[in-house]
Structure formats: structure tokens, C-alpha cells
Task: structure prediction
Amino acid sequence: MSMSHLLVEADGAVLLDTGFPGDQGRIRRGMAKLGLGPRDLKAIVLTHGHIDHAGNAAWAKAWSGAPVYAHPLEQAHIDGTFPYAGFSRVTGVLEAAGRAVTGYRPVPIDVPIADGQELPFWGGLKVVFLPGHTIGHCGFYSVRHDLLFTGDLWVRFMMRTQASPRVFTDTPELVPASLRKARAIGARWVVPGHYDLPDATQLRRQFEELCAERERPRPTV
Result:
């Protein structure tokens, strides 16, 4: 499952990714449990534009009036016009089917973001450009919480820890450098966009193990 994260502070909340189309009820219920309504949503921040992360962005913007923040290279993904190639053509087919079945609506990016920019949310949320999974894929690092959201750079799914699979990846050759960049931040917590158990300590350990395994020299034959 693609995860949406609600970042709550004293004067409202930020929605980090919006899930697959149809997750509106889950978002509303999660906010209501915290005593929050649409007027409390200050921003919708996207790691990337795949349908399972931007699927409810248009709805969330219409519901709350909150602006959408994302890297400008992700607009084609959000619009469903990205020219998939190679293995990732499968993703294009799956997304097209998803848009047709769910009535997905695209949304314009209101606030383009860039690497190193600090967004004024959650005590300061630094944009970390991590391309590979998509061409404009970004993570977000909170200095205050020492927590890095890495989107789909890596995933913990079906009891497996893996870097962005080639079939879902725009530019696989960029993934290793993005993993090294994320690891170099040295955040206490590292949270991906897909995980089976919400155990921050375990996720951090799994991320480190994945990075160490990928950096290990391969035996020659």
C-alpha cells in the first residue's frame, strides 16, 4: 500500500502524498481523529506524480484549498502524459488502466520545489532531490525530527526490502546515486512510501541493510 503521511503542527497539517484514488475517506478520517478539518490543511506535498501517490491530490486541493507542492518535472506524471520507455512501459499501462477505472483527475503543481529548498512546514522540511524512480522524485528531510521521507526510492513491500524496481522506474541508472545521497544524510529515521509495518526503528535498519548490500563488491567469475 502507498502511504500518505499527515504532518501535524500547532497551526495545522501538511499532507505528504495522497494515496491511490479512492483514499479520500481514509484521509478525512485520519484528520478527523486529530480534530482537524479541511481548513487545517496547509499544503499537499508530493514526492512524485505516480497515481498511487498523487491519486487524490486534485480532490484534496478542491476539498481544502491547499496548494500542491511538487518538483516541476512531475507534472507530466500527474497529467498522465509521461513518455514511458523500456521496462517502465508496464507502469504506463497500469496507470492508464487505473485512471480509466477510478476517474482520476490531474491537478496543476501550484508551488514548484527544488533540491535544497526548505519548505516552511513541520519546523522546516528540506527538499532532497532523489531522481530515479521518477525524473523529478523528491524526498523530504525534517531537521527537527531527524526524519527523512524517501518516497519510492526504496520500498518495504510483501516482506521484501528493495530499491525502486526497474519496472516502476524512469531512470534506473540514477537510483544508486540517490540511495547514497539519502544514506549520507544520516537521518535517525528513514521512512519509505511503501511499507508493511509502521515500525520506524525496523525501517531504518532495513534501509541501512539495503544500502550496505548494494555497496558490497560483487564477486567476479
Summary: The chain has one domain: 5-215. Residues 50 and 77 are 6 Å apart (CA to CA). The domain at 5-215 is CATH 3.60.15.10 (Metallo-beta-lactamase; Chain A). The chain has a mean pLDDT of 94.
